[in-house]
Amino acid sequence: MSTGATTHVAQSLQIEQLRERALIRIVGDEIRPFLQGLVTNDIEHLQRNSSAVYAMFLNKGGRMLCDSIIYRSQHENTFFLECDVKSVDDLVRHLKLFRVRRKIAVDSVNADYSVYVVHGGLKNAEVNEAVFPKKTAEPSVDKDIVLCQDPRLKYLGTRVVVPNKYSPHTIQKFFPDNELLPADPGNDYVSLRYKLGVGEGVGDHPPLKAFPIESNGDYLHGISFHKGCYLGQELTARTYHTGVIRKRLMPITISDPSTASDRESDIKTSKGATVGKLRGQKNGFGLALMRIEKIADSGSLTLNGSVCTVSRPFWWPGALPKTKAEAATAETQT
């Protein structure tokens, strides 16, 4: 006999510590104008109720040094910069070089803080609403904790910066309506990123080789084309306003997940023409830098003899122009 009572079943989410990501803390009264001249995005977004922004650090030639998520700490005049663990030393040196005489402290705090991600896994990658707690304990109970939606795509889940003195169970209190479980190795964050077509770190964005627009920085809300000057801006702005983007990172699906391929392996057509370079793969999903105009009518593609399929990410805006004429037409229509 029914009693009319309903039983609430907690939705399970996955939690992972991102051990390949590291944190740099910068403190000082001038950190906003300092970073504004060094990153591709507009730091002023962090003054407008944003807890985090995605941005890229470039060299003077417009090539990427590293990608970063910049968090606004609850401590006054304090930001955390998240980057690849292999980029920490270079990025600290880069920041100190351009600090000049500003009273800004720059320190690696990877020994004191960790980055976690809470996500819904591969199954709901294309349909999930943001994996962000609707009801949470107030993070301000500890000013060292930063909890925010991934600033690139909502499908990537929630980013959590937490002191190492806390266990992962601390994060559970921010998700009272969910059960947080360790990630399944076959359903993890890297596989999710690759399925979505999102690069991250030095493997996907080779330092001094990758360009921000080819890496989809514009589509991932990581480049401002309205802010003032910053290091490496000239080529980025010129490419956006007058050029055609001929290559972009795109997700690929590999028919044989056991196929072992090195980064930069060629992706070829049935006629043997190279149309892309592998940047990374896991669990049958991969990321490749593809020549957009070459893949439209390329037929079947292969990666080291294994058939692979390239797809256009569902979150990309509009159709991609293939020629300068199409790009000019698209510009006049926006």
From TrEMBL:
The keyword Repeat does not apply. NCBIfam families: ygfZ_signature. Signal peptide: none annotated. Keywords: Mitochondrion, Transit peptide. InterPro entries: CAF17_C, TrmE/GcvT-like, YgfZ/GCV_T_CS, YgfZ/GcvT. Its main location: mitochondrion. This is CAF17 C-terminal domain-containing protein. SUPFAM superfamilies: Folate-binding domain (SSF103025). One of its GO terms (cellular component) is mitochondrial matrix. The lineage of its organism: Eukaryota, Metazoa, Ecdysozoa, Arthropoda, Hexapoda. It is found in: Mitochondrion. One of its GO terms (biological process) is iron-sulfur cluster assembly. Residues 246-317 form the CAF17 C-terminal domain.
